[in-house]
């Protein structure tokens, strides 16, 4: 795979058409016990994950923009929709399907189902350990568990709320929040957005302007916000954004989703010796619709590192690892893969998981590196979660037990493995 470290605008000028072209492509059973034997059989079918990064293929789905594709370009830049679930021929299967206890990382698993007004904490056999529920309208797009049992909840484009362990509402603020949040010290960082005309994108149509808001963890009060779009426009990388002609008319009431920022993460400074971009307070974020992940210095509102165009397609959930690498879910146009890159080594791909048997989530996806070296992967659109070893063997597999009458398994935005010892609200 060709590697590209974006260090200056001159080196990138030759790839602008490819980068812009990527914008066109959007468009219950009982819990299982310890299935060691089944797990070994399942694992044996998986492909090895450690491999030489593959060479680029022409079938990645990236399409160059020309004068004949304006209508398609405009259509694909309008707000992205998400499916609630995916038809599953194995719809009768549910909960934990594989568990190789000797190889899987022990712990509890926290997640929200796509349409649920709540979240669950389940053990490694799928047994519900704790559950949060609310009668407030709106599905929990994303929920974050705190050690004391409180949960922070995003109801997309409606509100941000905090509930205690008994699902009692502690506070709630309205706003166009979406996708992700991060807790850093006593502050909450969350993605939000607004619609307005940005002439450098389109002279008349409204553009979705993604912002990173800093809010109080105690009551949700707004303290500061940074426009991701403004930061990009003021950088040498503004050419990654499309410029639509005056005669390109979006559908009435639709806004152009030029960035589709889908992740935010704040560094604590512990990795600064490995790479200067990890300075305390710097922000890692992902911009799906320009196939790029970046690090921002918030005080100066400048981009200090960026990577992705020609290497990524509609990625999600880049997250820093303790070794200074970045793990991310590269969705792809037809197949997905998990990548681990090393920013200190010219962004080399040092590990990947892309089984020939198939892994694909078109619009969502997440990954978590576990303490034993395994990786927890949420294949979001299909509603499956797997844990794989470094060599690519599946040692735990979970299927969302929520399946509708159309045999569609409900999506899971993100599952997180949690150490029970860190959860102070659980009775000993």
Describe the structure.
With 428 residues, the protein is mainly beta. The chain has a single domain, classed as Lipocalin. The protein is built from five helices and 27 strands. A five-stranded antiparallel β-sheet has the order 2-25-24-23-22, with helices on one face. A four-stranded antiparallel β-sheet has the order 5-4-3-27, with no helix packed on it. A four-stranded antiparallel β-sheet has the order 6-7-8-9, with no helix packed on it. A hairpin with a 5-residue loop joins strand 22 (366-369) and strand 23 (375-379). It is globular. The termini are far apart.
Cα-atom radius of gyration: 21 Å
Structural class: mainly beta
The number of domains: 1
Q: Can you summarize the main beta sheet?
A: 5 strands, antiparallel
- Quantity of strands, as a count: 27
Characterize the overall form.
globular
Helices, by number, come to 5
Mean pLDDT: 85
Distance between the termini: 49 Å
Strand content: 35-45%
Uncertain segments: 1-40, 42-72
Strand arrangement within the widest β-sheet reads 2-25-24-23-22
CATH class: Mainly Beta
CATH topology: Lipocalin
Give me the CATH architecture, please. Beta Barrel
User: Could you estimate the helical fraction of the residues in percent?
Assistant: under 10%
Task: Give descriptors for this structure.
mainly beta; Lipocalin; 428 residues; 4-stranded antiparallel sheet; 5-stranded antiparallel sheet; disordered N terminus; single chain
